[in-house]
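Deliverable D2.4 — example input (structure tokens):
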């Protein structure tokens, strides 16, 4: 069985590559948002034209990015949402909520020190991992029933 996994959240570290590399031998198809920060921020004005106000600049970009994000989450079997250490990822929390509202299996990847801040998101997840390799182990288990080690 091919498992479709959407990798949402933090874009400043290589966690996505760690998961995709670790899952190379698994039957998993990954998708993700645009992770080029500048491209993601500026896609709306680059495609639809400049805006005088930063609010409308961001609005255009957010709406275009939402097309990709919604499609990725809607088509996924599992949604992995990573909360990083440096920024408050409001968009990641939104993606987690959207996935749960659609009945998708949610796996959260976050650090123990963010437990309190993410308690509601963690409560909605089917698994909360601290390391990308744990996500790979979850995917392996889901596909084959095989435990790590």
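Example output (designed residues):
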């Amino acid at each position: 069985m091919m498992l479709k996994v959407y990798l949402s959240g933090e874009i400043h570290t290589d966690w996505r590559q760690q998961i995709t590399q670790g899952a190379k031998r698994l039957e998993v198809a990954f998708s993700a948002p645009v992770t080029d920060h500048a491209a993601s921020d500026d896609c709306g004005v680059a495609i639809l034209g400049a805006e005088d106000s930063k609010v409308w600049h961001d609005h255009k970009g957010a709406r275009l990015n939402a097309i990709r994000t919604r499609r990725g989450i809607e088509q996924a079997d599992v949604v992995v949402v990573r909360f990083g250490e440096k920024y408050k990822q409001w968009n990641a929390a939104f993606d987690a909520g959207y996935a749960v509202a659609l009945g998708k299996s949610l796996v959260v990847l976050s650090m123990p020190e963010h437990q309190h801040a993410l308690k509601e998101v963690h409560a909605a997840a089917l698994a909360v991992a601290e390391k990308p390799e744990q996500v790979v182990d979850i995917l392996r288990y889901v596909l084959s029933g095989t435990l790590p080690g």
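The mean pLDDT is 96.
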